[in-house]
Amino acid sequence: MTGAPGSGKSTLTDKLIGVIRGGDLEVGVLAIDPTSPFSGGAILGDRIRMQDHATDEGVFIRSMATRGHLGGLSLATPQAVRILDAAGKPWIIIETVGVGQVEVEVAGAADTTVVVVNPRWGDGVQANKAGLLEIADVLVVNKADRDGAADTVRDLEQMLELAGERDWRPPIVETVATDGRGVDVLWRAILDHRAHLEVHGRLEQRRSSRLRDELRAIVFERLRERVDATCHGERFDRLVAQVAARELDPYTAADALLGS
Ligand SMILES: Nc1nc2c(ncn2[C@@H]2O[C@H](COP(=O)(O)OP(=O)(O)OP(=O)(O)O)[C@@H](O)[C@H]2O)c(=O)[nH]1
Ligand SMILES: [Mg+2]
Hints:
Layout: E1 2-3, H1 9-22, E2 27-33, H2 40-49, E3 59-65, H3 72-86, E4 91-97, H4 101-109, E5 114-117, H5 129-135, E6 138-142, H6 149-163, E7 172-175, H7 183-199, H8 202-230, H9 234-244, H10 250-259
Parallel strand pairs: 1-4, 1-5, 2-3, 2-4, 5-6, 6-7
The chain binds guanosine-5'-triphosphate (GTP) and magnesium ion (MG).
Magnesium ion (MG) binds near residues 9, 10, 45, 46 and 95.
């Protein structure tokens, strides 16, 4: 579940928890704050917004900040999802603020990406509109109680039209998260997307490509640690001095370091 700050992600998540618990299934919620090192605001805000479920044993809600975490969101999120999965949560909702690269990483971590926008979304200068449409499996126009919801739906339809043929056309759902209107339609859209993935073998494909990305990211982090360890110390300093004195070119120096 991704979208601009304040678009209603937590309120929608709260209502979705209600739907899932109505079916007696357990649910895990990860609210990811990509910017704050402490996530204090997010923890408080999300807990308050999902208060109805705070004492429900079948609901696990956790806020996490990823700044400062090695590999950031792309490593922390799948690991947290894995733990919730192992703990037997059949549904896991990941909420994160959409800012640039982040929503793309979220899309990488989830089976279904829900992009939340609000009425008049089309008015502002939003650099990453096309990018958001690209990752959306389901589009939500939340705060449909406000003016301009129908226009925004039309805008989105046009943009999807321009984006061309795809094997899955993201449905556009209007919701009013505060009173729950449209949330049943949103849940149906999520289930439809899941069914689509399963029928076409895409679920396994997505998960396997996700694992490839994760493994690659882990290897990358490990290599980075080695780079830090290698480009450090007496031998490194000596090679730098040799390059500075033009006794050695930097590529040869690099090879010498890697060779060691
Ligand atoms: N009028 C109206 N207000 C809404 C609706 N959904 C959410 N809100 C309000 O919008 C504000 C932000 O809602 P949140 O659910 O916290 O939004 P969010 O996207 O989780 O916000 P961040 O996590 O801070 O990015 C709250 O005051 C909600 O009560 C809606 O459908 N209609
Ligand atoms: Mg929130």
